[in-house]
Every structure is written in structure tokens, then in C-alpha cells.
Write a structure and sequence with these properties.
The protein has three domains: 1-88; 89-137; 140-209, Nucleotide Exchange Factor Grpe, Chain A, domain 2, CATH 2.30.22. Strand 4 and strand 5 form a beta hairpin. The chain has helices at residues 2-22, 27-87, 90-109, 118-136; strands at 139-142, 154-160, 170-175, 177-180, 183-186, 188-193. The protein contains four helices and six strands.
Length: 209
């Protein structure tokens, strides 16, 4: 009787062993599944952190660009405000140049006998006051007699041979020029030396100087 019972237990044990080996998960496989389940949340968290870091880098770059644009805008506004202050009198100054020209013509046309007259002295005093007011507001007269021709500030009206002087030397001022601070209001109209065909002088004037 006992041998029959033991045979039944052995048979049951063998069936359980067969089931385990055929279809059931082993202990090693269960550990691998648990390990994979634990790794998945860590991988997701790392990806989330990497995405946040990339977003922070992008936002930082956008902020730096915005700050740079703001600084450029501020500098441009300051420069435009300074230019407006420096060149605000430009149109008025150009209108006053004809007055200064007429004063100079009146003085130059006076006869030698009239140079000491009260009238001529009064015109000279008026011219001095006008030029002083010009200088106070950044307007300066250009009278480059004897200087080399500069296309940024001079305009050639005549060319004449003059041995002993270099080509391009200004020998006569037909009309004085003026600048407002560093901006040309009107070029000085001049006559220059030209002694030969190789000494041609460019007549172009850079009015943006």
C-alpha cells in the first residue's frame, strides 16, 4: 500500500517537473523580466532630462539673441539721436551759405580806397560774426589755398599750368566750401595746377564725406 502511494507521488512530481521545463518561466527568466522592467523607467527619465536640457539650451540662445538685438537697437537709437543733434542745422546752414558768400563778395569787390571805410568795416564785422556763429554750431569754412586737391572736399573748376608746383595743388579758391561737423555742406570750388597730360586731376566730389 505504501509503495503504491509513493509511486503516485513520484508520478505527480515528474508531471510538475515536466510542466516547469516545458511551459513555465524559469527563475532566471523571471529575474531578467524584472531587470528590464526596472531599466525602462530609468531610460524614460534620462530621455526626459535630455529633452529638458536641449530646450533650456535653445531658450538660452534665443534670450542671448534677443538681448543682442536690444543692445543694437539701443545703440542705433543713440547714434540717430546724436546725428539729429549734430546735423539738425544742415538745411538752415545751406540756406545761410549764400548770405556768407554775398558778404565775402561785397568785401572783395570794394576798391582799395574804400577798404578803410565804415561800410566795408561793417560788412567785415558782420562776416566775422556770422563765421563765429557758424563755428559755434559746428559749421566750418574750407579755404584750402596751396593745399593738395582732395575730392572729398574740393571741386575743380579750372586747371592751369604752373611750373614749379605739383599737379593738383590748389592755386585759387573760386568759392569757399563748408562742412557741418564731419559732413560736407558744399565743396570748395577751386582751380588747380596741371602741368601736363599725365597730371590729370579727378574732378569727382564725394558729397557723403
Amino acid at each position: 500500500m505504501m509503495s503504491v502511494h509513493k509511486s503516485q507521488q513520484d508520478a505527480a512530481s515528474g508531471v510538475h517537473s515536466d510542466l516547469s521545463s516545458e511551459g513555465g518561466p524559469s527563475a532566471v527568466e523571471e529575474n531578467q523580466v524584472d531587470s528590464q522592467s526596472m531599466d525602462q523607467p530609468a531610460s524614460i527619465e534620462e530621455a526626459h532630462v535630455a529633452a529638458l536640457q536641449a530646450e533650456m539650451t535653445q531658450l538660452r540662445d534665443q534670450l542671448l539673441r534677443a538681448l543682442a538685438d536690444l543692445e543694437n537697437t539701443r545703440k542705433r537709437a543713440v547714434r540717430e539721436r546724436e546725428d539729429a543733434g549734430k546735423y539738425a542745422a544742415g538745411a538752415f546752414a545751406r540756406d545761410m551759405l549764400s548770405v556768407a558768400d554775398n558778404l565775402r563778395r561785397a568785401i572783395d569787390s570794394a576798391s582799395p580806397d574804400a577798404k578803410d571805410s565804415a561800410l566795408v568795416q561793417g560788412v567785415e564785422a558782420t562776416e566775422r560774426e556770422m563765421l563765429k556763429a557758424f563755428e559755434k554750431n559746428g559749421i566750418r569754412r574750407i579755404e584750402p589755398l596751396g593745399a593738395p586737391f582732395d575730392p572729398n572736399f574740393h571741386e575743380v573748376m579750372f586747371e592751369s599750368p604752373m611750373p614749379g608746383k605739383a599737379d593738383g595743388t590748389i592755386i585759387q579758391i573760386l568759392e569757399a566750401g563748408y562742412v557741418l561737423n564731419d559732413r560736407l555742406l558744399r565743396p570748395a570750388r577751386v582751380s588747380v595746377v596741371r602741368n601736363g597730360p599725365d597730371g590729370a586731376v579727378s574732378h569727382a566730389v564725394d558729397r557723403e564725406a
